Structures are given as structure tokens and as C-alpha cells.
Amino acid sequence: MFDYSDITNAQIKEAIDSYIHSERDRIILTMNLVDGYTYQQISDCLYALDQENKAKGIYTKYELTPRQVSNIILKQEKIVFRHLS
């Protein structure tokens, strides 16, 4: 876990947008690091987004368990904070 208490949300958001290339992973990281969502809340939001997209005929792969969300965050935040250090 990283200590980012002295880094602003704007800096974190800018780093996420600059260094994370996957749209799904950018959404997940922003929800967790900037907005403070839990893994379960993110998983629920992504499921709702996936269902909404399916209704529109857009097929995405956003159905993730909280554990999968956690793994994505742990992996991708290393990239973000490496660039912020």
C-alpha cells in the first residue's frame, strides 16, 4: 500500500490518465484512489455499467469480482505511484 497523503487528487487523476492505458483500469483506479470507493462498490458499479451497455447493444467485459478489482488496483497503482515519486 502506498502513502499518497501529500499528493493531490488532481495529480493522481493526471497520472492515471497519462500512464494507465486501459479504460477499464482507469475507471477502477479513479473510483478507488480519487473517489474513495471500496472494492465491492466498484464491482457493483461496473456490473451496473456492463448491464447498461448490454441494453444498448455494447458488449463490454466489466463484470468483475471485488477480488479481481483489488488485483487490478494493486497492480496498476504501482505504475501510477512510480511516476508520482
Q: Element order, helices and strands? A: HHHH
End-to-end span in angstroms?
A: 14 Å
Q: Runs with pLDDT <50, length 5+?
A: none
What gyration radius follows from the Cα positions, in whole Å? 13 Å
Overall average pLDDT: 91
Layout of strands and helices, then pairs:
Layout: H1 9-19, H2 23-34, H3 39-55, H4 66-84
Helix pairs in contact: 1-2, 1-4, 2-4, 3-4
Describe this structure in words.
It is a single chain. The chain is mainly α. The chain has helices at residues 9-19, 23-34, 39-55, 66-84. The two termini are 14 Å apart. The chain has one domain (9-84).
Brief characterization of the structure:
By secondary structure, the chain is mainly alpha-helical. Helices cover 69% and strands 0% of the residues.
Note the main attributes of this structure.
85 residues, mainly alpha, 4 helices, 69% helix
